[in-house]
Amino acid sequence: MLDWLIVGGGVHGTAICTQLLKRGRVSRDRIRVLDPHDEPLARWHAFTRNTGMPFLRSPVAHHLDVQPAALHHFAETEAPEARFTRPYHRPSVELFRRHCEAVIERNDLRALRSRATALQVRAREGGLAVETDAGVLTARRVLLAPGAGDQPYWPSWARAIRGELGGVIDHVFDRGWELETFAPSGRTVVVGGGITAAQVAVSLARRHSGGVALLMRHAPRVHQFDSDVCWLGEQCMRHFRRTDDMRHRRDILRRVRHRGSMPPDVYRQLRKALTRGAVCMIEAEVERATADPLGRGILLHCAGQPPIAADHVLLATGFDPRRPGGELVDRAVVELDLPVAPCGYPVVDGRLEWGRGLHVTGPLAELEIGPVARNIIGARYAALRLVEAL
Q1: Which of 14, 100, 314, 364 has the fewest Cβ atoms nearer than 10 Å?
Q2: Rounded distance between C-alpha atoms, residue 358 and residue 42, angstroms
Q3: What Gene3D superfamilies does the record point to (predicted)?
């Protein structure tokens, strides 16, 4: 029986595995990461490629290694050509990728991976049993680390015509879609109001001459981070932790997250593209979509204006807010009688323990960790909770 089985090999699973090995005194033969992908961070790397993101939104101290200065030291000693941008000394995506690979190599994390998909978690004497499509693994403690990456958000109007116009509408976070190979003909309309939509629109405008429109429900919302920096410390988190009312905590999360926002540098790039005429911006909300009767494209019907014609629609609408983890988590709630808040998310203790021996991180831990739970720094905070619990 393992001491730890981490379900999910993304940013959170990889970061916490590293922390448990280097700070939690967990021996290598007693820990495994269960993940269906060929490589660690597979989905994260795909998402950053598909957004055309040149620099992270988070600062240099937010990374997968143990010491806060590790990424900065890596850049100085092993990547002298590394690029950062202001403010907060934010690293390029390429530098962050290289540092992640260095962490994985130095700690030989690939040797700790079991490639399989978790199907169900059951109680077992002395721990938990995780049934997978490749057999059963048992562990004293299991960490559920699913991201929201498997549930890109499709608005209702887009779902309604997805089957009919499957070749005309895509989501940037759908499996198999790649920005690098996306070569539309004619006009592309990017739907979304945040950092992803802006970066995709600007990236497409640089590569294609068919015309790019950015369709947003609201005017650009400019924020450096997706929540204020006070949520990284006690200044804001003190009040969050004082309430035991999970409805109130959920209301706080909804209120303080800057959903559909972009940092100032991305907004400047978008403004330049708008000024050049490479991108046009339309502020409207789609009510429904229909096939264009005059061609092979699509018509987007918005209130108070003529339909918007597009040869291709690209959704950059983020992820579905419902609880991630799919059937695995749904079954665990029933099988292990796990407590959930009215919003469906886990109610956990200070050690991020949801049920006996079952811990969570990422979105599943946001009612405890707060608004940064989904981010890279959220993985670090979760790891510290788990290490301290040991």
Answers
A1: 100
A2: 24
A3: FAD/NAD(P)-binding domain
SS3 214: strand
Q: Across the strands, what pairs with 144?
A: 7, 360
Q: What share of the chain is helix, strand, coil (3-state, %, to 5)?
A: 35, 25, 40
My answer on whether omega of the bond before 36 falls inside 30° of 0, hence cis, is no
Burial class (CB in 10 A: 0-12, 13-18, 19+), 210: middle
How long a stretch of residues is the chain? 390
Predicted local confidence at residue 360, as pLDDT: 98
Residue 373 near residue 379 (C-beta atoms within 8 A): no
Are the CB atoms for 324 and 161 separated by under 8 Å? no
> For 308-361, how does the pLDDT look when each residue is reduced to its tens digit (9 = 90+)?
999 999 999 999 999 999 999 999 999 999 999 999 999 999 999 999 999 999
SS3 106: helix
Q: What are phi and psi of 122, to 5 degrees?
A: -130, 150
Take residue 38 and report the two structure tokens written for it. 């060929």
Pull the structure tokens for residue 192: 């979304």
Residue with tokens 């403010």: 87
Q: What do you get for the CA distance between the two ends of the chain, in Å?
A: 18
pLDDT digits (tens, 9 = 90+) for 128-155: 999 999 999 999 999 999 999 999 999 9
According to DSSP, residue 307 is labeled: P
Q: pLDDT by residue (tens digit) across 173-216?
A: 999 999 999 988 889 999 999 999 999 999 999 887 778 999 99
**Strand extents, DSSP E, 158-262:** 169-171, 188-191, 212-216, 221-222, 261-262
Can you tell me the distance from the alpha carbon of 65 to that of 102, in angstroms, rounded to the nearest whole number? Answer: 10
Contact (Cβ atoms closer than 8 angstroms) between residue 308 and residue 299: yes
